[in-house]
C-alpha cells in the first residue's frame, strides 16, 4: 500500500507486520466479545482503556479512522495465520475472524447491513478495507441475485413494451401530417406578422416538443447506447436537487441495504435511497473506499457513482434536512450544514465510468421531473423570455410605439384641454 519501495530487510518488515497485526487483532477482539463469540480475557481487557463498546472514548474513533485508511491495510492472511497459532483448528480461527470483521463493518459502515445477506468469506478479501467494500458494493453475481427477474416479471415487461409500442403507433396516426398542419397553421400565420414571430417559436416548442427531439439521432435517443456505449460527458450528474424534486412532488423513502437498493418508482414518484448514517468517521471511511475502488476495481466505479449522485442532489442544508426528515440520512454530526459540506467535498471520480442501474434511475428521475408542466413552463420561459434579448427589445419597442402613438393622439386632439373641459361640465 506504500507509494515507494521500503528499504527494510525481510525480517524487519515481518516484525513490523506482526506487531501491527497483533494490535489489530487485539482491537478486533472487542467486537467478538460484544457478540459473545469470545470470552473476555486478561489480554483483551488490557485495551479497554482505549476503547469501549459504546465508542465514547476519543481514542476509539481515532483508531477506527486509522484502520480504515488505505495505506494502513494489513493482509487478512496475516491475521488468519496469527489466529491459527492461537487456536487449535483453522475452523475456529476463521469463525472468530469472521465475527471480528462483521462487528467492525457494523461499526464503521455508513449503511445498515442486512442480517440475511449472504456472508462474505474473509479468505476472499485482501484486507479489512476490501472486506468493508464488498459489504457495501455487491459483486456481479450478488447483483444478479438481487435484481434477478423471474418469468412473470419478464412477461409483464413484454406486455408493457407491447402496449407502449401500440400507443406510439396510435400517436403517430393521430398526429399525422394533416392534423399537425391544422394545429401549426395558426402559429405559421402568427409568425408572418411582424413582432409575433418571436412568440410563435416558444408556443410551438410547448405544444410540439417532439419536433425538437426529431432532430436527434437514433443513437442519442437509445437508452442502451446512452448508458453502455458512451462515457459520461462530465463527472457531475445532471439531476435536480432534493429541494427541486420535492417541489415536483417527488417523495424520498429509505431502504435497508447497500447501494443496489437505489431505485425510482415513476408511477408513485418515489425515490428509494439506502439509509446512511453519518458521524465523525464517515467522511474518512468514504474517501478511502472511493480511493480503493478507483485503484482496484476493473469494472464500473459503483461507490464513486453513488457519491456523485449524493453530491449532486445535496446542495444545501435544506436538502439534508428533507432527507433527514424522511429517514434517508441519520445525522450524528453537529448540523445539517456539515453533512452538505461532507458530500460536496468528497473527491470526484478519478476515471469516467457509468453504472447502469444508477444511471437508469437518474434518467427516470430526470424524465419525470422534466415532464412536469411547472418545469416545462419555467424552462420555456427561461429559454425564450429571460434568455432572449430579442423579446425584451420587442417589448420595449412596442411600449415605445404605444407611448409615441398616445403622444401623437394627444397633440392632435388636445387631450389636456378636452380633459379640463369635461371636468368643468
Describe the structure.
There is one protein chain. This protein has helices at 10-34, 42-45, 58-68, 76-86, 90-108, 128-136, 140-146, 151-174, 177-191, 197-207, 210-213, 218-221, 223-229, 242-247, 282-296, 302-313, 317-325, 336-345, 356-370, 373-386, 389-413, 415-424, and strands at residues 251-255, 263-265, 270-274, 276-278, 329-331. By secondary structure, the chain is mainly α. The longest helix is centred in the N-terminal third of the chain and has 25 residues, at 10-34.
Q: Nutshell version of this structure?
A:
The protein has 425 residues and is mainly α. It is built from 22 helices and 5 strands. Keywords: Membrane, Transmembrane, Transmembrane helix.
Amino acid at each position: 500500500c506504500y507509494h515507494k519501495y521500503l528499504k527494510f530487510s525481510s525480517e524487519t518488515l515481518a516484525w513490523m507486520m506482526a506487531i501491527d497485526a497483533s494490535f489489530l487483532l487485539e482491537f478486533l477482539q472487542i467486537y467478538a466479545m460484544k457478540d459473545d463469540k469470545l470470552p473476555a480475557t486478561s489480554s483483551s481487557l488490557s485495551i479497554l482503556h482505549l476503547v469501549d463498546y459504546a465508542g465514547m472514548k476519543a481514542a476509539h474513533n481515532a483508531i477506527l479512522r486509522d484502520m480504515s485508511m488505505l495505506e494502513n491495510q494489513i493482509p487478512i492472511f496475516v491475521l488468519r495465520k496469527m489466529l491459527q497459532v492461537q487456536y487449535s483448528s483453522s475452523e475456529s480461527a476463521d469463525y472468530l475472524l469472521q465475527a471480528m470483521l462483521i462487528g467492525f463493518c457494523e461499526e464503521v459502515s455508513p449503511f445498515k447491513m442486512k442480517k440475511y445477506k449472504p456472508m462474505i468469506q474473509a479468505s476472499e478479501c485482501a484486507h479489512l478495507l476490501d472486506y468493508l467494500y464488498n459489504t457495501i458494493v455487491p459483486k456481479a453475481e450478488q447483483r444478479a441475485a438481487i435484481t434477478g427477474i423471474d418469468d412473470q416479471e419478464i412477461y409483464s415487461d413484454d406486455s408493457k413494451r407491447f402496449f407502449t409500442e401500440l400507443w406510439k403507433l396510435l400517436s403517430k396516426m393521430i398526429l399525422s401530417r394533416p392534423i399537425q398542419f391544422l394545429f401549426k397553421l395558426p402559429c405559421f400565420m402568427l409568425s408572418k406578422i411582424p413582432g409575433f414571430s418571436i412568440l410563435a417559436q416558444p408556443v410551438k416548442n410547448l405544444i410540439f416538443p417532439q419536433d425538437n427531439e426529431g432532430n436527434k439521432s437514433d443513437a442519442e435517443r437509445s437508452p442502451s447506447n446512452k448508458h453502455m456505449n458512451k462515457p459520461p460527458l462530465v463527472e457531475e450528474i445532471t439531476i435536480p436537487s432534493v429541494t427541486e424534486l420535492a417541489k415536483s412532488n417527488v417523495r424520498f423513502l429509505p431502504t435497508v441495504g447497500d447501494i443496489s437498493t437505489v431505485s425510482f418508482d415513476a408511477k408513485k414518484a418515489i425515490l428509494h435511497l439506502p439509509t446512511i448514517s453519518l458521524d465523525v468517521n464517515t467522511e474518512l471511511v468514504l474517501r478511502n473506499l472511493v480511493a480503493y475502488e478507483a485503484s482496484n476495481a476493473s469494472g464500473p466505479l459503483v461507490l464513486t457513482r453513488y457519491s456523485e449522485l449524493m453530491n449532486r442532489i445535496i446542495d444545501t442544508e435544506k436538502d439534508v434536512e428533507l432527507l433527514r426528515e424522511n429517514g434517508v440520512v441519520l445525522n450524528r454530526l453537529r448540523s445539517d450544514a456539515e453533512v452538505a459540506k461532507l458530500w460536496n467535498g468528497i473527491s470526484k471520480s478519478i476515471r469516467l465510468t457509468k453504472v447502469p442501474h444508477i444511471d437508469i434511475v437518474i434518467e427516470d428521475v430526470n424524465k419525470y421531473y422534466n415532464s412536469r408542466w411547472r418545469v416545462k413552463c419555467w424552462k420555456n420561459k427561461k429559454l425564450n423570455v429571460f434568455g432572449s434579448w430579442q423579446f425584451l427589445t420587442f417589448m420595449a419597442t412596442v411600449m415605445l410605439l404605444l407611448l409615441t402613438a398616445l403622444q401623437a393622439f394627444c397633440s392632435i386632439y388636445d387631450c389636456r384641454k378636452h380633459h379640463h373641459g369635461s371636468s368643468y361640465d
